[in-house]
Amino acid sequence: MRFPTMAWMLMVSCVVVGENFAFGQTPATQPTTRGAARGAGRGGGRGPISSSPREKLPFTNGDPAAINGALPTLFITGDSTAAKNNDADHRGWGAVLVDYFDAGKINLVNMAQGGASFPSYYASSWPRVIAAVRAGDFVIVEFGHNGGQLQGMGPETRPGQLRTGMGPMSVVHTYGWYVRTFIQDVRAKGATPIISSTTVRNMWTNPNGTFRDGTLTQQSPGYDPAADRIERGMGNLLPTGERTMLVWARQVSAEEKTAFVDHSDITADVFEKLGRVAVQKYFPADHTHTSTDGGVLNAEAFLAGLKGVADPLGTQTLIDDLNEKGKAIAAYKPVQGSR
């Protein structure tokens, strides 16, 4: 089913009016004290300061052995922004993606790993993923928040740490090399790769304002909150306004004729529609990790983008495996003038 242009964005806009999440009646995360969250720091012993009814439901399975072997499997690979993690202040979108698929048609396995970069995941976790992948499966690939890779899309290598400033030394490749290699490895197993740009961080700009983690710290005369713009993608900023990792992921996907979901632009469009102040509740701990309801927003944004992918790139079968909740999400269409 095709949905009209802007339908998905219009559904999201109801959040502002009703203070409820856009699609599935999930109540918004409870009010938080952001300064207290940042002051406690990660791993500081505090309990989660956000809550969501979604926390009472099972999360996406993380064990590739715990599947129905008669069904195809959708694997999620990525970092902490997709992983289940340890609390409701750091809940990744892959943890709740199970809510949108028919368990009688497809398995879901969330193999996203906190702290993972392309190089570290390729060295430590990717072999386990590929060993589990079978013909007819699907693999989502979304990396970038933790750096580590070389710039560009070429064959260059150098010795380096597997994460930016962290991890053991190894041979490190370019961002584009990892995207291309993951695509080729998945296809070699008879499965379908889906490349995704990163989720966005709660980092904003405005010609007349200065921000820290979404909080306005300084403003000049003429400051207009309608001109607040959230960061889109990861990497260096290009003259076009895009960032390098987003561009490389999209370009390699096009060259390899692989499905590409622009998770960055989709969620950025949603957040800018909601407005900077309203978005703060989705980032209770820091500017990268979302609350559970933020994870729900990112999961639904991913599915909206998936529905916008043109065939014949192998994704229609996966879309057919959505349950009624998943089918209710409209296909994403870019917002004109959003960049």
Euclidean distance between termini CA atoms: 28 Å
- Average of per-residue pLDDT values: 87
Question: Mind telling me which CATH architecture this is?
Answer: 3-Layer(aba) Sandwich
Tally of DSSP helical segments: 12
Low-confidence stretches: 1-44
Determine the CATH superfamily.
Answer: SGNH hydrolase
Molecular shape: globular
Strand coverage percent: 5-15%
Rg calculated over all Cα atoms: 19 Å
CATH topology: Rossmann fold
Largest sheet: 5 strands, parallel
- Regarding quaternary structure, how should these chains be classified? single chain
Run of helices and strands: HHHEEHHEEEHEEEEEHEHHHHH
Broad structural category: alpha/beta
Description:
- This protein is α/β, with parallel strands linked by helices.
- The chain has helices at residues 7-12, 14-18, 34-40, 118-124, 126-132, 175-188, 244-255, 263-274, 276-279, 292-307, 316-320, 324-327; strands at 73-77, 107-110, 138-141, 157-163, 166-173, 192-196, 204-205, 209-212, 215-219, 229-230, 259-261.
- The two termini are 28 Å apart.
Keywords:
339 residues, alpha/beta, Rossmann fold, 5-stranded parallel β-sheet, 12 helices, 11 strands, 14% strand, disordered N terminus
Short note summarizing the structure:
This protein is α/β, with parallel strands linked by helices and 339 residues long. It is 29% helix and 14% strand.
